Amino acid sequence: MSSNGSLLSTVSTTKVFGGLLAVSDVSIEVAPKSIVSIIGPNGAGKTTFFNMLTGLYRPTAGRILFDGHDVTGRRPDLITTAGMARTFQNIRLFSTMSALENVMVGCHARMHAGLFGSILRTPSVRREEADVTDKSREMLEYVGLKRDLHDQTAANLSYGDQRRVEIARALASDPKLLLLDEPTAGMNPQESQRLTEFMDQLRREKDLTILLIEHDMKVVMGVSEHIWVLDHGEKIAEGEPDEIRTNDRVIEAYLGKQGG
Amino acid sequence: MSTLRELRTREWTKYLLPAVVLLAAVLFPLFRPPLDGFMDDCILALAYVVMALGLNLVVGFAGLLDLGYVAFYALGAMAVGWWASDFYTGVGGAEEGIHIGVSGFAATLPGIHVNFLLIVIGATIVCAVAGAIIGLPTLRLRGDYIAIVTLAFGEIIGRIFQNGDEITLFGDYKLSNGRQSIAPVDAIDIPFLDPFDSALNLRPYYWTAFAMVLVVLFVNIRLRDSKLGRAWIALREDEVAAASMGVPLVKTKLLAYATGGAFGGISGAFLGAYFSSVNANQFQFGFSIFILAMVILGGLGSIWGVVLGAVALAFVNNRLIPDVLDQGFVGDKLKDLGLDFSFTEISFGIFGFILVIMMVLRPEGILPERRRQMELKEGIGESEAVFEARV
Amino acid sequence: MIAEFISKYGLIALLIAFPAYYGVQDLINDGNLTRIGNNLVDGLSNGAIWALVALGYTLVYGIIELINFAHGEIFMLGAFVSFALWGELGLHPDTATVSLILGLLVSLIVAMLVSGSLNVMIERVGYRPLRGAPKLAPLITAVGFSFILQNVGILWLGASQRAVPDLIHSQRELFSVFGLSVSRGDLLAVAVTIPLVLLLTSFVAQSRLGKAMRATAQDPEAAKLMGINVDTTISLTFLLGGLLAGAAGLINTLYQTSVWYFQGFTAGLIAFTAAVMGGIGNLRGAVLGGLIIGCIQQVSDNRIGNEWTPAVIFAYLVLIMVFRPQGLIGEETREAG
Predict the structure, then answer these.
(1) Are residues A99 and A52 in the same domain?
(2) Are strands B168-169 and B173-174 parallel, antiparallel or unpaired?
(3) Cα dihedral: B21, B27, B30, B35 (round 10)
(4) Can you give the C-alpha Rg of chain C in angstroms?
């Protein structure tokens, strides 16, 4: 935990690609065990911002502090080890692996089997494999994937099930902070509602903090304790749902983009 | 009566066929003369199986297209050339040499003579390190560039040994014998057994090669179903997602190169000892393609497919081409047509043809590996990374 | 930003350091730069030939992001075709100049056409069916074709180097400038290459087909939507690359007076290094890279020994790939997704 108690804070984080200023001077503070959201019109830089948090992009400027450590520019796998996990906007499961295997890969950071241990299958490695397999199955059941689908190839799963597996995979690394990139994309209202309840459940039962990127306003307003609004890479507003709902700049950013 | 029924349970019979095959493979040399052309072919095939399994680990499991695999063959072979011959006569006193773990005739020779098993360990370590070094520059590169860089390394190492008679170390010691062979290389000498003699009896070589294959198969199967094996598949399919799930890309890739390379070194050392000579002229790009063709033919990522592919191409190279095609029926017919060429001359063209045909018609190979089949045939699991994962 | 600067000028420094080292040696030993100067003159003419081959690599890579492994063999077969034609046409060093020039022009055109068509055929048969497949697949196919064609070379003219009649007396000195000797071969290499390169660059820059090529290279999907026939454009690109390689094959044969089935493999890697050094996908870069590589090759041949030259060049290739894969001029050939 950093000195001001936030689990995650970014300080003036900026990303420039060649000539394009994708994210500009964005600072946020995420309190532990909260559910918070980043919203904004398409192209506002939300996913780019996520990618900086998880280490896929190195920020051009600014810092990222997670759980008391400066993780700016750290490698993605090390950030996962530090306790940040994510899902992707376009589902990025390992499609030729089964659902179970996908989740087991998610456990990679918490496993200790090395090269020689794996070859010799020492008792501790065998135990670890069994434990990880059990834990992964539990994870899949927790997110609601039926047992008989656990060994199904990921590519053959329905869209909704694939989303579930992605969340299970992210949870597998025992994260403190879960980043969900448009988790309700492609869902109908009932499914979105279920996901919203699920996020609350996650927060309670798994002691998680959740940071969302979302477009579905109902979900955002219903579940977030705090919202940041990005437009053209800049933070144009932040606050509680009621404040954001009535914020003129926010409304203009959305209406101006879509035209209705 | 119930015991008879129990005997027919699936569990038991599942292991019956492989056990019989295994037993047959182990006992077969006893039914052949000690010096047998067919056994010679089998020994070579076994050595190539080891190489192909090594390359399969890098290309098939981890998806890193290594076109310079000959480098590991070279390093393994040179290891026996250096440490099991009189190439370094003069070390340790001109007449005495250095002897570690050798007995019999070799113990009396000048030069460096280390026991074969120790050399294998040494070759494994050297090749593992070399694999990591070769892999290091490729970490941030895309597939086609990885191919070129590994190819370049294969060529660099080959050339260094081909011209190694111009390089001297620690005084007068040449790096290699240049384009000439280092010969003779010590026979394999395993503790508690007499040293082998390839001029008299091939059986011990066969069993050594067979043991090698068993070990390498064992390592492959274990790794395939392990945490590391899953990490390789993940990084092959989607590096970005893999890294985001906590897979350390650098370490995982380097382990692939190192482990795969180590197998090549083991087989190279064996072949050097088996041929009783080491010649840098063999360290050509064509060899890398020969091994690659085995992997492609058998099935990328498929352990048993690759074994099949290696055995098949070994026999094509050693038997089909020289004996059947050149001297047999086909060769005669071609001469009747007035075409005067030797199939042996175009053996690499044949392997190139195999590569093209397989890729266009059946890229997943003869015995496909399930996931690769999905990727290659059905286009599942192809993710063009929107951005390259930072390593 | 700093990394960009260091890598660019670091590469330039590494490239210059190699000949500079020997230049300094010359100053010390001979008191002048004649030897290194001659190395560089030969290097530039060799380099002109590599530039032609490199252009073929870079054109193809720019449009479909594939290393056409067989491109070196296209070059080799262009050389073989030239050699065969000279025999058919009865050209030899004493042929009258007019007949010689006519004969060479004919062989040039034929060699170019053969190489060009071969390249197009390879794309059609081996790469097009695999356009949707993982990148691994066409790459392996390319390697396969390379081997098949090498063996065509073996079957045609055998496995050893073959001497070729020295039709233009390529080593004869034409003139000297600043004490540096420029031979007929040197002049030929440069004189044929320059117009070809200019023709190509203006074609790509100005013609409709050239614009189609550039559009497809940048964004194939958008190009298709604009009505560009991507298949034809790609075939055309392979044709152009093959034409240049065929020309390079002929020039090289005149210059070096020998042919060998293996020359495609070494030429291919040298030219590919040149293309990458300049910046893959970049035409000017390919030419620049070719010239530079030619110089490095010549200095290495002359000073270290030609058995080491491939290792030297591959070492540079590895360095470039690791530290500056975008090459000297380098640019993104495809819009980021």
Answers:
(1) no
(2) antiparallel
(3) 70
(4) 20
Tokens linked to C230: 């991507």
Q: Which residues pair with A20 in a beta bridge?
A: A17
Check: CB of residue B264 under 8 Å from CB of residue B76. Answer: yes
pLDDT > 70 in chain C, percent: 98
CA distance C36 to C38: 5
Identify any residues that bridge with C181 across adjacent strands, giving them in sequence order.
C176
Closest partner CB to C321 (pick from B149, B341, B356): B149
**Residues C272/C57, Cβ–Cβ less than 8 Å:** yes
Choosing from A165, A197, A220, the residue where a domain stops is: A165
Question: Which of B155, B359, B360 faces C314 most closely, judged by CB atoms?
Answer: B155
Give B62-95 pLDDT, tens digit per residue.
Answer: 999 999 999 999 999 999 998 888 887 766 666 6
Which chains are within 8 Å of A by 3+ CB pairs?
B
DSSP string across C165-208: --TT-TTSEEEEETTEEEEHHHHHHHHHHHHHHHHHHHHHHHSH
- Report chain C residues whose CB lies below 8 A from the CB of B155: 269, 310-311, 314
CA angle at C255 for the pair C250 and C261, rounded to the nearest 5°: 60
Q: pLDDT of A101-128, one tens digit each?
A: 999 999 999 999 989 999 999 999 999 9
DSSP state, residue B33: -
B114, β-bridge pairs: B100
Rounded to a whole number of angstroms, the distance from the CA of A111 to the nearest CA of chain B is: 8
CA distance B81 to A75: 43
Low-confidence winner among A164-168, C91-95, C309-313 (lowest mean pLDDT) = C91-95
For chain C, the domain total comes to 1
Instruction: Please state, in angstroms and rounded to a whole number, the distance separating the CA atoms of residues B74 and B76.
Output: 5
DSSP states of A120-177: HT-HHHHHHHHHHHHHHHHHHHHTT--GGGTTSBGGGS-HHHHHHHHHHHHHTT--SE
For C220, the token pair is 């194939």
Residue A258 and residue A181 in one domain: yes
**Is there a domain that residue C283 lies in?**
no
pLDDT given for residue C336 in this prediction: 31
Distance in angstroms (rounded) separating the CA atoms of residues A1 and B241: 27
pTM > 0.95: no
CA–CA separation, B134 and C291 (whole Å): 28
Among A147, A165, A183, where does a domain finish? A165
